[in-house]
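Question thread 4412

I'm putting together a teaching handout and wanted feedback from people who do this every day. The idea is simple: show students a protein as raw sequence, then show them the structure tokens that encode its fold, then repeat with a second protein so they can compare. Below is the first pair exactly as I plan to print it.
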Amino acid sequence: MGLILSGIALSIVLRQNARNDVAATALILMETMGSVRDYTSSQINPELSDELETKFLPQTIPAYSAREVFENLRNNPEYRDFFYKEATLNPTNLRDKADEFEAQLVRNFQQNTSLKELSGFRTVPSGEVFYIARPLSVSAESCLQCHQSPATAPKSLIERYGTSGGFGWQLNEIVGARVVSVPASRVITKANRSSLIVLSIVSTIFIGVILLVNILLNRQIIRPLKRMTRVAEEVSTGHTNVEFEAISNDEIGNLAKAFKRMQLSLDIALRRLSRSTHGGTGA
């Protein structure tokens, strides 16, 4: 029962720890993508803005840069299970179109501007995933160059994506959510691996303690009690010459001493009874 209860408690704690570890990694990745966005917006976009009138350069779009950098990062086995998306309600590129679940995340951020982060599990066609999301807002004036209206947007952008989406944005408006997700199996596998290691250690300790307790019980209590039981049985059948051995100074030793005093008292009583019986017969 101790192992079962410990296993349940450890499973809950370690799963939460695994979730926190994955969430911490996801947040680091998200902050990194935020830095890529800022770099693209503040340094790349101004340098290439003049060329946008004649040639569309997706590298000048912060969302595109962040997505491409993240895809390159996924070539590393450590991060291949992570996915990044800037889910937008009204995107220029349909690749960034928010699904119904992501759209609800965006609406939650819009309705509660003090809300800075949402996380949890969701079910997708490929299975269950763990996600962490943060609001995506129009934080720079340069973003409005492409997203304020078709009239002010670069012609090359209009030619590539048209005028159906990605316009009417306002400065500081929350237009989407940055979402990093990872298959839930990664969280569960990490928790199970940790649980197995910890439970193995706990089980070894439990078994070691149980064996030690049994050895001590057998040596300090069971064996002395068995010896006293045999001696008491012999005394009860009239063999008063056997002795109780007080082999220790603990409660078992005190019990042996008490039995020995009782044996002496019984021996004295039997002798008196014997003399009294013989004396009465002689009269």
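The second pair follows. I'd like the answer to focus on this one:
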Amino acid sequence: MMNQVAALIFDVDGTLAETEEAHRYAFNRAFSEAGLNWTWNQETYRKLLKVSGGKERILAFAPDASPELVAGLHNRKNQIYTKMVDSGQVSFRPGVESLISSARAQGLKLAVATTATRANVETLLGARKAFFHTIACAEDVRRKKPDPEVYALVLKRLDLPADKCLVLEDSVNGVTAATTIGLKVVVTPSLYTKGQDFSAAAAVLKDLSGITLAKLIELKG
């Protein structure tokens, strides 16, 4: 069974780590510092997460915002988020570290397919960045999830067919992006994606704690 999978492809926000509350806090701090009376509560942010990309969410919330304002807010948000990660306020979800170690020991390639910014991804990964064969981020694609572009790019860089890879995701946008090009997906819903329609996924798990690599690959079917 193990030889049927040659690579694991991870989403980042909500999948590798429960990052979205940190992002929401950072957005609100950036808004406040800019003198804006915008506040994204959990309900508002849950709706905005249907839009992929931080700049895109700002525009979805405030369509008339200038490009300069959007870029400035997003840049400041990322600075605040980076400090939160560096101070240990964001950690990997249960079972993720163990799964990465097992995959490396078995000789599987590891990849990231996200439409988060490269700076945020590299901040979260830290030294673990070296474990990944390729990391595809927002800067690498024109269209964000649910468009499959980022997954197509990762497959090209891995030089592997879709049936030799398994994707770890947390959102319906991610599942749609991956399954559109034939990738199988195991979902671990996050705080903001619980209750979404994951019927296209191969399996849905609470998290990865206690899940061996062999079991995960078995779920791929």
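Top answer:
Good format. For the second protein you could add a caption like this: The first strand starts at residue 7 and ends at 10. The domain at 20-86 is CATH 1.10.150.240 (DNA polymerase; domain 1).
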